[in-house]
Amino acid sequence: MELPMKNRLFVGCVVMVSAVLGYGQAARPQTPSPGTAVAPASSGASGTAQRALLDQYCVTCHNDRTRRANLSLEKLDLTTHVGGNPQFWEKVVRKLRAGVMPPPGMRRPDFAAYTALTEWLETEIDRKAKLNPGTVVLHRLNRAEYANAVRDLLDLEIDPATLLPPDDSSRGFDNVAGSLGLSPTLLESYANAAGKIARMAVGYWKTPTERTYIAPSDTSQEYQIEGQPFGTRGGMVVTHVFPADGEYKFSLKEFVLGPYVGDEQLELNIDGERVQLFEWNNLKGGNPGADGDTGGGLELTVPVKAGTHRVGVTFLATNFRPSLDLARHYARSTLENSRIAGFSNYPEVGLLRIQGPFSAERPASSRSMRKVFTCRPSNATQEEPCAKEIISTLARRAYRRPVTAEDLEGLMTFYQEGRKGATFEDGIEIAIRRVLASPQFLVRVEKEPSNLATGQTYRISDLELASRLSFFLWSSIPDDELINLASQGRLSNAAVLEQQVKRMLADSRSEALVSNFAAQWLYLRNLKATSPVATSYPDWDDQLRQAFRRETELLFDSVVHEDRNVLDFLTANYTFVNDRLAKHYGIPNVYGSQFRRVTLGPELDYRRGLLGKGSVLAITSVPDRNSPVKRGVWILDNILGTPPPEPPPNVPPLEDTTGEPGKILTVREKQTLHRKNEPCASCHKLFDPMGFALENFSADGSWRTKDGGDGGVPIDAAVELHDGQLVNGPAGLRQALLRYSPQFVRMVTEKLMTYGLGRGIEYYDMPVIRSIVRDASRNNYRFSSIVLGIVKSAPFQMRVKLEESAGNN
């Protein structure tokens, strides 16, 4: 029955993609209501003063003759042109809000006049803005959403990377609908995943699986790894899904041993509890830096209960220290041909393989089984009613709406086929497979009313609002409370909606904002591929990489769950460190791998906010040096919300010397020489100075005072920014950027709205975004005030009916 059932699931999945588009709680045709009144400030001016400013400072370049950037501002009647051409003027406003126009070196008005011009333009645009909430037609769950939905539906943790292909990204995020297509190949992957997950959910897995984990090549063996017991060092920790109760084989291979390794103890633990302690004496002769491999490795077979467990492999720390701090640079420098990087005088584990289950048994109970089996039949006559209860409960959560009689009839057909010649649990397993393979689970569909004309706006249903809300804040399906409120038509009530948003932000599931939103906004996912050259940065290792990421995640989490001002992303006088990160930052008296909050005193003022975080500094560097260009571009994009254009083709590399014998250029000197290329100069004048202000930070995020080591040239971090402000170092740059605080809040709001809507922000969204920011300013820019503004806005609660197959993603 296995193959035919799989085929039926797959074929049915394809057929239902179109059929599911027809279901939906009735949407309501709507005159403009939520968020449509953007309440701009009164214009109070005819545009004469603004026209004079443009003539004095802008028309020099942007006139009918030169048309720099293909733009002419000459002779335009601002009182009619601004409100009538919002797409054009939103581009101008964005440049002005970031302070990047007029360009560096050109005359510019004082800041008060500059701000007044920008606000007048925004007011004119907002005053004449027309409601356009936009539309997203079809929204497939991405891998993270799929895994979270399975977790909340079945109380089962899965690794989606082992089941589904990676998602494409668009507009900076992998949940944008336009990049989440559906293909027959992908649907087959979902059908295969559904079968594996259903078997785990009911606790019955017949076929042994094998998963191999390889330690990151730059894992340090000197430090305790987060999640490992105190008094250990090195090794690895993995999260592994054990599909059923049974015997599992653990294989530890590819040990690399230094020349002075004697008695060593290696611990295998599950969920922090020691399972086995391996001991051996392997004293080897040789020279420092010479590595050896133990060959066959170690193996152990033990019983493990079904579920998700943390498996750790680590060495017990001893007083014997085969590598001294003064030898660390040498130890790292000898690793060019080593299979496993690290401090070569320490033993290392390269590979952990987990196989099983062998002699699998269906467990009497598990977390997922308790979630699934809400009833248990005691005789044959009770089976069908119990199956209906189980299946309807699961389908309601999975489909994010009440289950129809037609839904239940179809799912019961699959249950009945699975039950033939088998057990009650087997029938439920097949029904779960069908639910998980259904497009009604895999796709977020919002039905358009058939009686509306193209271009007419309408409010989405409460059930659709519940899905938007849960996938925005939890990256997962709505819980019972949301579905109940939506089914009663109460969720769209402003007071109820606000209460639900606050509840959801306080829920642990809002951690998805950290792992999904923040990780993509701040490029934290790029850390995995970041690896400074070991010979230049011997302090870099995987523990530091993980600590960098966790520090930034915890900063973001504190802003969310403490409901802080989002400007704390720039100014927070606290951070989160463990012993590994504290040592790198020079923070004393921090012990252990657990992260704790520390206050940044005056001596560590340069570590405040995102600009002082090792994660940001490392991902905006190149392997052999820091990069003022990448750092400046990062600030333009993620602080000022004005990403520069793509660089021209065939950009020449930086020169190391001027040709003068013995003269090695600093990074700043190299970049200054590079800027003499005319095609490069105009953009580099914008972002290079901001990058130079961070010149004290190395590629590994450490603080330095000289370029080129102790014998190098003193760092010069004094710069003139694109807007004429003179700053010196990170603290000065941070203070200068605070001049653009409203623009930073707008940028955060844009990013959150892009993520929450699953589509890119368009010019017609900007009046609403400005309204959200104005309202949030009255509440000290608290994170919840921005989220509430988005959730209550027209783009979040409404749609515009488009022509067949049209949409904006």
Task: Provide a descriptive summary of the structure in words.
- The structure is a single chain.
- This protein is an alpha+beta fold.
- Among the domains are: 80 residues, no CATH class; 153 residues, Sandwich (Jelly Rolls); 61 residues.
- The chain is 40% helix and 14% strand.
- The protein contains 29 helices and 23 strands.
- It has a four-stranded antiparallel sheet, with no helix packed on it. A four-stranded antiparallel sheet has the order 4-11-7-8, with no helix packed on it. A three-stranded antiparallel sheet has the order 1-14-23.
- A hairpin with a 5-residue loop joins β19 and β20.
- α1 packs parallel to α12 and α17 packs across α18.
- The protein starts with a helix and ends in a 9-residue tail after the last strand.
- About 6% of the residues have low confidence.
Distance separating the two termini: 41 Å
Q: Tell me the radius of gyration.
A: 30 Å
Annotated CATH topology of one domain: Jelly Rolls
Number of helices: 29
Largest sheet: 4 strands, antiparallel
Q: Largest beta sheet: what is the strand line-up?
A: 3-12-5-10
Give the mean pLDDT: 85
Envelope shape = flat
Helix content: 40-55%
